[in-house]
Amino acid sequence: MSLALLLAAALAPAAAGKPAPSPPPPEPPRVTVEVVALEVVGPGYGQDGKEVQPFGRPAGTRMTLVARAAPPYAIVSVDTQRSVIDEMRDGTGLFLSRPRWQADAVSDGGQSARLEMWSAGLPSPRAASLIGMGRIALKVAAGAVTLRSREFKLRKGSGVQLGGVRLVLADLKPGDPSEATFQVPAGALGPLKGLRFVVKDRVVPVTDWNVHPGIDDVLLGCRAAVAAGAKVALEVDVWEDSHDLAVPFAVQPGVGLERPRAVTLGEPPPARDLRPFDLVLAGVKSIGPGAPEAEGTGVALALTAAPPYTIVSLDGEGLELLDAAGARLAEPQLTVWRTADATAALLELRAQERAAPDASGVGVRGALNVVAAAGVEKVRVPRVLLSVGDTFRLAGQVMTVSEVQTSPGAIGFSVEGPAAVVDAVRAVRFQPRGQAAVPAQERGRRPGGATSALALRVATAEPAGDFEIEMWKQPRRVRLPVEVRAGLGLPALSSPHP
Length: 498
Hints:
Blueprint: H1 3-16, E1 31-41, E2 60-69, E3 74-78, E4 84-90, E5 100-106, E6 112-119, E7 130-148, E8 152-153, E9 159-162, E10 165-173, E11 178-185, E12 192-199, E13 202-213, E14 217-224, E15 231-251, E16 277-287, E17 296-305, E18 310-323, E19 333-338, E20 344-351, E21 362-373, E22 376-385, E23 391-394, E24 397-407, E25 410-418, H2 419-423, E26 425-432, E27 438-439, E28 441-448, E29 451-458, E30 464-472, E31 476-486
Antiparallel strand pairs: 1-2, 1-16, 2-6, 3-7, 4-7, 5-6, 7-15, 8-15, 9-10, 10-11, 11-14, 12-13, 12-15, 13-14, 16-17, 17-20, 18-21, 19-20, 21-31, 22-30, 23-24, 24-25, 25-29, 26-27, 26-30, 28-29
């Protein structure tokens, strides 16, 4: 017999008696953190600074983070009380004041959790990035087990066993849906993943549920389309193999939501004199996948008028939204708001496309067409007939009544005339013959080059009477070229003037 066979025979019994190798330990939980949205919002305008606000939000800086757990783990919950923000600053080194967690949410199934960091502070005008550092406290679990009770009657005081734990139906409010509150011993069930009722093998989903912890007991409230007194079973999914983690994060995104090519910008070009207006960059936002808003990029501009001027109307001409390299973002949409006193206007330009991931900034290019006035004057126009073809004089020009439509108790009509006169009309009241004056509801304006039309409606059946018209004083048209290049700061775009 060969030596190899002798050695094999000698070793065989020992090998047979060896214990099987133990399975490898499970991988430790792994959680990654990324930035999915940035928003920098400047001060609002109008009464108390709240009448018109960039993006409809209060002034401040918001960074939205998403934490994702690698399978087989899922995120059960986030604890913002134990989560820590070590610092929130911009790329120039400016620290933003008193950052805090403002919102959190866990996705269905626990694949991700979303948190928002917010500070009332604003970045430096030259900033092209934000820096966030800290730790996120969350609970992860590697799976879930389903527990099902025996059938019981859904009525207040009923007791039910669920996996060796006794639950008591402490309160029941019948309805559609019914509201049930169970009393559960604290710590007996563990974190819940799902909850539902079963009625005669038919699953009735719970529309929403909540847990209110106490010292000795937990109150588990839920809503479902089940009738009081019905025979039901309760089915609960409970997370198991859970771990409490403190996940560190350190991020430095720019408008592309990743680290930008340049984290600070060079000195801006000299601001231009736009008298009697001031123009500032009022807000910047970048929204990526996983954020609560639709994906895209937004820029807000604020235009203010120095006394005695007010902003009568404002629109954009060829406005484009660009990334830092000058590439145009597709299909930007413009929205304009004005304060009630017309001293400020806010423009929001939004595109559904985002800048490149490493973009250092965004830009706006085009022009603003502004009609400004130096106050308001009232003009009375007597003996008007709301009939097609009737004419009257306003500001020395002939105006024509057209498109008259009558209905019980109301008359709709249009007033046509030179565009400069129609643009100067601020408000109209109509005093029917022998009656009190009533406001004319503006239903739209139709520009048409040299002439324009103003559509109105008055709540009266009497077509003869007088107009009381508020006119803007000394209206003037101004075209303001706009070319903005900015990171995450909010620089002034015009030089200050008296």
